[in-house]
Amino acid sequence: QVQLQESGPGLVRPSETLSLTCAVSGYSISSGYYWGWIRQPPGKGLEWIAIIYHSGNTYFNPSLKSRVTISVDTSKNQVSLKLTSVTAADAAVYYCARLASGTSDYWGQGTLVTVSS
Amino acid sequence: DVVMTQSPLSLPVTLGQPASISCRSSQSLVHSDGNTHLNWFQQRPGQSPRRLIYKVSDRDSGVPDRFSGSGSGTDFTLKISRVEAEDVGVYYCMQGTHWPWTFGQGTKVEIK
């Protein structure tokens, strides 16, 4: 059974960099599939942030591209996300997910990020 | 970006009665691979989204057969034949044809 577990700081100060990690179990990232991050501001809808293949091929949401870095560590079976210059608008639950062709079949439980000084 | 528009945004339903959610896309969702990548997700309160339907009408393993998806091109529908208490939550359509993939605003299903 594929499982994804997000982790992160919980609280980030405005203008700082948010760093999140997604630990994958039950499947080796290096075996295939794209892996990605989605966010959901409190009480609002869902937004794709970025996706990455184990080889390093990436796609970014143009609305966030200038501030986002996504990476994989196949030795740790993890996917990471960095978002720079955060503001209150970046406060959200951040999910990681596995992508298949045109769909996403496994999601983590999400990690809540608050932006505050 | 492809805009996904769901209606209604709120859907009060009587237990045992049917429910229907519409999802319209601003562009055709037919992919160059020949598939139409329209998905439906259910998000129960306090939980992460769970995929119910992919490629318009393919139901995930373990999803009750009271859930069905239909449609083509830019117009899609999720139907629940008989709503049960466990179906309460927010339902999202998501297109996986054009990057960035995008979601509808969500439809909140509640019991009357």
Topology readout:
The complex is a heterodimer of chains A (117) and B (112).
Chain A: E1 3-7, E2 11-12, E3 18-25, E4 34-40, E5 47-53, E6 58-60, E7 68-73, E8 78-83, E9 92-100, E10 103-107, E11 111-115
Parallel strand pairs in A: 2-11
Antiparallel strand pairs in A: 1-3, 3-8, 4-5, 4-9, 5-6, 7-8, 9-10, 9-11
Chain B: E1 4-7, E2 10-13, E3 19-25, E4 38-43, E5 50-54, E6 58-59, E7 67-72, E8 75-80, E9 89-95, E10 102-103, E11 107-111
Parallel strand pairs in B: 2-11
Antiparallel strand pairs in B: 1-3, 3-8, 4-5, 4-9, 5-6, 7-8, 9-10, 9-11
Describe the protein:
The complex is a heterodimer of chains A (117) and B (112). Chain A is mostly beta strands and 117 residues long. Helix content of chain A is 0%, strand content 54%. In chain A, a hairpin with a 6-residue loop joins strand 4 and strand 5 (47-53). The N and C termini of chain A lie far apart (39 Å). By secondary structure, chain B is an all-beta fold. Chain B is built from no helices and 11 strands. In chain B, the strands form 2 sheets. In chain B, strands 2, 4, 5, 6, 9, 10 and 11 form a 7-stranded mixed beta sheet that branches. In chain B, strands 1-3-8-7 form a 4-stranded antiparallel beta sheet, with no helix packed on it. Classes of the chains: A mainly beta (117), B mainly beta (112).
List keywords for this structure.
heterodimer; A: 117 residues; mainly beta; 7-stranded mixed beta sheet; 4-stranded antiparallel beta sheet; B: 112 residues; 11 strands
Helix count of chain B?
0
Q: Compute the average pLDDT of chain B.
A: 97
Of all chain pairs, the largest interface belongs to:
A-B, 19 and 26 residues
Percentage of residues assigned to helices of chain A: under 10%
* Unreliably modeled segments of chain B: none
β-strand number of chain B: 11
Mean pLDDT of chain A: 96
**C-alpha-based Rg of chain B, rounded:** 13 Å
What's the number of extended β-strand segments of chain A? Answer: 11
Sheet with most strands of chain A:
7 strands, mixed
The H-and-E topology of chain A, N to C, reads as EEEEEEEEEEE
| Content of β-strand of chain B | over 45%
Distance between termini of chain B?
35 Å
Largest sheet of chain B: 7 strands, mixed
